Amino acid sequence: MSNAVATDVQVAPNMNGSPRNASEAVAKSLKRRYAAEKRFRAYGLVAIIFAALCLAILLVTIVGKGYSAFTQTMIRLDITLYPQDIDPDGTRDPDVLSTANYQKLVKQAVQDLFPEVTNRRERRHLQEIISPGATYHIRDAVLEDTSLIGQRLVIEVPVSDDLDQFNKGFISGDVPEVERRVSDKQIAWFNRLKDRGVIISTFNTTLFTAGDSREPELAGIWGAVVGSFFTMAVTLLLSFPLAVGAAVYLEEFAPKNRWTDLIEVNINNLAAVPSIVFGLLGLAVFINFFGLPRSAPVVGGMVLALMTLPTIIIAARAALKAVPPSIREGAFGIGASPIQVVTHHVLPLAMPGILTGTIIGMAQALGETAPLLMIGMVAFIVDIPGGPLDPSTVLPVQIYLWSDAPERAFEERASAAIMVLLGFLIMMNAIAVVLRKRFERRW
Amino acid sequence: MKRKTLALAVLATVAVAGAAEARDQIRIVGSSTVYPFATTVAEQFGKTTKFKTPVIESTGSGGGLKLFCSGVGVEHPDITNASRAIKKSEVERCHKNGVTDITEIKIGYDGIVLANSKAAPKMKITRQQLFMALAKDVPAGEGKLQPNPYKMWSDVDPSLPKTRIEVLGPPPTSGTRDAFAELALEGGCKKIGWIKAMKKQDKKKYKAICHSIREDGAYVEAGENDVLIVRKLEANPEAFGVFGFSFLDQNADKVQGSLVDGVAPEFENIASGKYPVSRPLFFYVKKAHAGTIPGIAGYIKEFTSEKAWGPDGYLTDKGLIPMPDAERMKYRKDGAGLNNNIMM
């Protein structure tokens, strides 16, 4: 804009040297300039609206698809825990209790709901309304309280994923029977159970307490959350001290010569290397050369630490640079040694900036899947990892695995997992903002 | 600074100690087609026994066999899943790396379907028509080839619909793609007399003709994600998709399978072998690991039990097509004895 003004004004006096003509020229072009101004603002506004709209669509589709995963359709079963089936010798030995045939009890309880169903094929069909996980619910209840044996137990167990989807309205009863996963009979049984009031919709606690599973109604994100926690812990432990050390040295102590220039260029370049490359490096070095276990958060953390190092170094150097030289000079002036200047004055003042950079780097690492593919963290893992050496997966990988699963009930669970991941990311970024607001100083 | 060094030292010790420790958990790699079945069995095995649940990575058949054959020891996987039989070159690689006793267990069949949206009419197609529609080069008269000129299905055969040829399918790295090329395309290709005769003289060229899929945009590589293909078919009723039977089974309200050679891709037809585009699925066990890694025998037992792979087993619920009784018996016995049943 300013360019246009300059030429307009300059050209006019050259033509006949009078200031009046110049202001006329300006007045003439004024309308055009205002229009250009307006257009420019409109472009910006359109860009913002477009971005906001995309974000809104993304959020609406994820929440719209995922909110239903937070509830689970359950059925209240009336089960008699016959001692002869669970613990025939009466030893109450946990080994015996955990391997007992609870399935038989569940089958009997389901059968008792509809005693009129006698045909063998239909009985099998009837059993399909219950999740195969029901037996584990009962086993856990018995293991927790052995005095239940021999008594009647009213327990809520999940229905099968197909009926859950039907109850949530994702499977329509209007399409022909062969085209849906639930049959007319199952729908009829289900509706009768609903009339009896034994079908209830509860908060889906399994989603937050269980590991992965092939049955959508038994699958949860806890295993992935724990895996993400261990991975992030290793990443933070490695990348933060290394990055701060590197930044302090480069900024405060290193001489400015060709070598430090080269290092600087390389750090900046590393920040732009695709993350999969770090995964390949991790596979070659940590797993194949050092023989660390596959699928372990410790390796994942090391790979992600390499990935976040440049981000933190760059942020930390910027934060150190922002500390005014007068602070250093003042500290030197009262006799502080270089290390005292750094640790007592410069570093504490730069810390909010460094931490902001670290949190943003960690948030990036939390959402990463590509490098983990190479080191075996993209895997089906049911057991909740107990430490950074146990096989585990991470949240974004869990989302990826679920979105690829054929069962339709996984679709809503993947969206729910995305919501949880987004929640974590928003929280981390909020912490970064708060840190900046509270502790940042301006000179 | 001191604390940093300490933390690093602790981490390094933990890491090294962990690596040296023996593994108490089965590790499985391999085919993404077998993955849904193997994971179901693994979960069942983990929940009903005292052993830990096996860890399963989906690496593709080729990638799995490569890892599997890289040696004996806790750092190598114990079992690999495959949607095709092990190749001779892979057995040689295994032997070279000390993996000599391998047990092959066939688990059942998988059908590959050509499906489209329910909004469009169901298609009836023969394998030969499929070859003509999707091959890179198609025969133009006796002994001559031309780049595939067909734009519409009706150009291939007037009985086919008057829509543009657009097929979404897996990329070349996928076992499903290999099987589709071998069973559907080659199946149609060898019905053409002079190409069939070529098989004996120039096997390489025969394979190149029969297995090459056109690259001019009519066949769209849609990645390994079958869920994505189903969604794209829903959005575009004119497109067709190539994927495994289990995805058709789970999405029967959205997509329909085309009849190939007059046979519909249904459970019974695939089980009886009538549906032409079906393939066996396998897993391979390293015998040398059976003694050191706990639970391998138990896992095989669970996989080969009637309640898992039988006609009424829980794997059929996930879309696995069971084998006939005699075959199940044979592989159950091989699995129980960990017989080295690869003859090459």
Short description:
Chain A contains 19 helices and four strands. With 443 residues, chain A is mainly alpha-helical. The radius of gyration of chain A is 32 Å and the shape is extended.
Tell me about this structure.
The complex is a heterodimer of chains A (443) and B (344). Chain A has helices at residues 2-16, 19-66, 83-86, 94-99, 102-113, 120-127, 134-144, 161-167, 184-196, 206-209, 222-253, 258-270, 275-289, 297-322, 325-333, 338-366, 370-374, 395-403, 409-439; strands at residues 71-80, 152-158, 199-203, 379-380. Chain A is mainly alpha-helical. The longest helix of chain A has 48 residues, at 19-66. Chain B contains 17 helices and 13 strands. Chain B has helices at residues 2-20, 35-48, 61-68, 88-96, 127-134, 153-156, 175-189, 193-201, 203-211, 226-235, 245-250, 267-271, 287-290, 296-303, 306-309, 314-317, 325-337, and strands spanning 27-30, 55-57, 79-82, 102-117, 124-125, 137-139, 145-147, 167-169, 219-221, 240-244, 255-257, 259-260, 278-286. In chain B, a hairpin with a 5-residue loop joins β6 (137-139) and β7. β4 of chain A pairs antiparallel with β2 (55-57) of chain B.
